[in-house]
């Protein structure tokens, strides 16, 4: 049964599943797609978070304005009711009636004011909570978008440089220490390229006895699975991007 192992655990006779997202090119070669897409994804997220913070600040300021205006309206209404209650008590012609009217009017107003103010406070708190929840959702959506964009950028760069796959394979073959009979599974679009460099790969890695190159429709362009008899390592572009996505989402949750 095949196993999946880490790259630092690869030994003779193991199956190594690889992709070019882990390959670091020399100075004269293109830069690492994974490194560039991580930086671009981070920049997208930073810009979007700044914009989200700006929107949230404006929304909170507006909520405070609404609260202040409501309080002012309540105060005005309270004064009006006080005046009406006072007038009603005066018209009654009795000191007891005036005092009772004042007290009752004041109590009613205070109760109405307290209830209304409590409702406003609750609405403002709910508004702030909704804003924070939307901010978290926005950040997660931004991560998803950044990963999609990054995947397209990486795929385009890989198409523009045919040497990426070859150089990545050369680097990963150095992990093997003894003579091996290897199978390289690649997308059929990459078969011709690897057939051209097959003999050179064997010659430059003296411990390799034979390399069989097999087309596999399930493997994306510029991806490769290096198989031996015992196991492998999944290092495809899709896997790396999924790992980056998980890390970014974890950072958002911690933040």
TrEMBL record:
It comes from the Bacteria. GO terms for biological process: bacterial-type flagellum organization; protein transport. The keyword Cell cycle does not apply. It holds the Pfam family FliH. Residues 1-43 are annotated as: Disordered. Residues 117-244 form the Flagellar assembly protein FliH/Type III secretion system HrpE domain. Keywords: Bacterial flagellum biogenesis, Bacterial flagellum protein export, Cell projection, Cilium, Flagellum, Protein transport, Transport. One of its GO terms (cellular component) is cytosol. Signal peptide: none annotated. Residues 1-11 have a biased composition (Polar residues). Needed for flagellar regrowth and assembly. Belongs to the FliH family. This is Flagellar biosynthesis/type III secretory pathway protein FliH.
């Amino acid at each position: 049964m095949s196993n999946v192992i880490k790259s630092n655990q690869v030994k003779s006779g193991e199956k190594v599943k690889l992709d070019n997202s882990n390959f670091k090119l020399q100075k004269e070669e293109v830069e690492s797609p994974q490194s560039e897409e991580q930086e671009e994804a981070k920049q997208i997220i930073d810009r979007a978070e700044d914009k989200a913070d700006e929107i949230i600040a404006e929304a909170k300021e507006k909520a405070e304005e609404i609260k202040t205006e409501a309080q002012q309206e309540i105060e005005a209404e309270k004064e009006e009711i006080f005046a009406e209650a006072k007038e009603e008590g005066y018209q009654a012609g009795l000191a007891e009636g005036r005092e009772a009217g004042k007290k009752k009017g004041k109590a009613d107003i205070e109760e109405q004011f307290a209830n209304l103010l409590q409702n406003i406070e609750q609405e403002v708190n709910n508004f702030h909570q909704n804003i924070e929840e939307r901010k978290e959702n926005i950040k997660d959506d931004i991560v998803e978008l950044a990963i999609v964009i990054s995947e397209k950028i990486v795929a385009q760069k890989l198409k523009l440089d045919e040497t990426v796959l070859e150089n990545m394979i050369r680097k990963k073959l150095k992990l093997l220490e003894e003579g091996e009979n290897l199978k390289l599974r690649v997308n059929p679009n990459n078969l011709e390229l690897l057939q051209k460099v097959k003999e050179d790969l064997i010659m430059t890695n003296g411990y390799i006895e034979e390399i069989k190159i097999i087309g596999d429709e399930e493997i994306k362009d510029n991806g490769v699975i290096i198989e031996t008899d015992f196991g492998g390592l999944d290092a495809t572009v899709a896997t790396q991007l999924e790992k980056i996505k998980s890390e970014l989402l974890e950072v958002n949750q911690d933040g």
